[in-house]
Write a structure and sequence with these properties.
Length: 377
């Protein structure tokens, strides 16, 4: 079938579909259950909207992280894909891949499969969503717009590619599983990010910063160093205990300093500590005069955002800024569709006649424009 023409692109992220266990009573621990009908309706609307040319998912469509430490980990998307509760979302995604353009950029919560099979994620997505465009390098580009999940610039969630090969799993994976364990035991929903942020700021001045945070999460989940973490099927970690895992990441900051010259660890901490990736976007994509990108879109934080860089690159010092003028650059964040967050998305529209590329953050189902801006094409 011919792909429908349109001028709009829709960016969403952080759906976090889980398997049936994550949604089961009495203590569901998954992040995505109540918003399934809402996302299904949204996707059907995009499918039927002639002005929408493409839907781009910026990571964490599937969730292999939020699994209690005492349960078998997911090393395949199959159980999530075949979870009957997820069918209302899966089916319109398949139609979008078939009838329009559906693009996918991998995130961190769908990282586990790639540790057992480096091209496993890509194979799965292409087999089950025929026509999908999978961005294996983690970056979506169109003209001067660039988009990615954003976890690569976060201290606790970037792939650990220097110390724990072949696993690549960052510390955030294990923190997520411990919080999931706590929720599965108590039945009280908790936000992993809120717990992490609280402990980051509590121990920010500690000499053993990473170790203290890990220990705090362990104790908060009512676990002990001798408790096992089920890692069946994941290389490098068979028979791992809570204490053994913690010891692997005690030197996280020195390793980061040595192996990540692209971004300072303190800046990477802000993505975890204050749920803000705008500074990372500035540093990576907007840090030098005449940068080739003028729109950057991230996900990961679960909080929507749009920050305009108001001054045009060649603007005179006394220029009066009017909000209908194009910005030099725009950073936007899609937000999330998890049950604890307002459902939001980013919409972009290229207007060749006006010479503008418009960017808006909207909520759903109200479709209110939360913030907007534009840049020159």
């Amino acid at each position: 079938m011919m792909k429908k023409a349109g001028t709009k692109r829709i960016f969403i992220s952080d759906i976090h579909m889980g398997d049936e266990r994550s949604q089961a009573e009495p203590n569901p621990y998954g992040w995505f259950r109540c918003n399934i009908p809402k996302l299904a309706n949204f996707l059907i609307e995009q499918l039927n909207a002639p002005e929408v040319a493409e839907v781009v998912i910026l990571g964490d469509l599937f969730d292999e992280w939020v699994i209690p430490t005492n349960q078998n980990p997911l090393t395949s998307f199959q159980d999530i894909y075949h979870n009957p509760n997820n069918r209302p979302v899966i089916e319109p995604l398949k139609e979008l891949a078939k009838q329009k353009i559906l693009s996918y950029v991998p995130g961190n919560h769908d990282m586990v499969l790639s540790t057992t099979d480096p091209v496993g994620n890509q194979k799965f997505m292409k087999q089950n969503f025929p026509g999908i465009r999978y961005h294996a390098d983690g970056v979506y580009r169109r003209g001067r717009l660039v988009a990615e999940h954003g976890h690569r610039y976060c201290l606790f969630n970037a792939s650990d590619s220097w110390d724990n090969l072949p696993s690549l799993l960052p510390l955030g994976y294990f923190l997520s599983r411990m919080v999931a364990y706590k929720v599965s035991q108590t039945g009280i929903p908790e936000d992993y990010y809120d717990i992490l942020i609280n402990f980051i700021w509590k121990y920010i001045k500690s000499q053993n910063f990473v170790k203290d945070i890990y220990t705090a999460v362990v104790l908060d989940a009512r676990l002990d160093d001798s408790d096992p973490i089920d890692m069946l099927g994941i290389p490098r970690f068979p028979g791992a205990t809570v204490g053994e895992i913690g010891s692997l990441y005690e030197q996280l900051i020195p390793y980061w300093k040595q192996n990540r010259p692209d971004i300072y660890w303190e800046l990477a901490l802000s993505g975890d500590g204050i749920r803000n990736l705008s500074m990372a976007a500035d540093y990576i994509y907007f840090s030098f005069f005449g940068a080739s990108q003028n729109i950057v879109i991230f996900g990961h934080t679960h909080e929507w955002d749009l920050i305009p860089h108001l001054f045009l690159a060649a603007a005179p010092k006394k220029q009066v800024i009017r909000f209908n003028l194009p910005c030099r650059a725009i950073y936007a964040n899609c937000g999330a569709w998890v049950d604890t967050a307002p459902c939001t998305y980013v919409e972009t529209r290229e207007d060749a006649a006006a010479g503008r590329h418009y960017v808006r953050v909207l909520d759903y189902p109200d479709k209110r424009v939360l913030r907007h801006g534009s840049v020159n094409l």
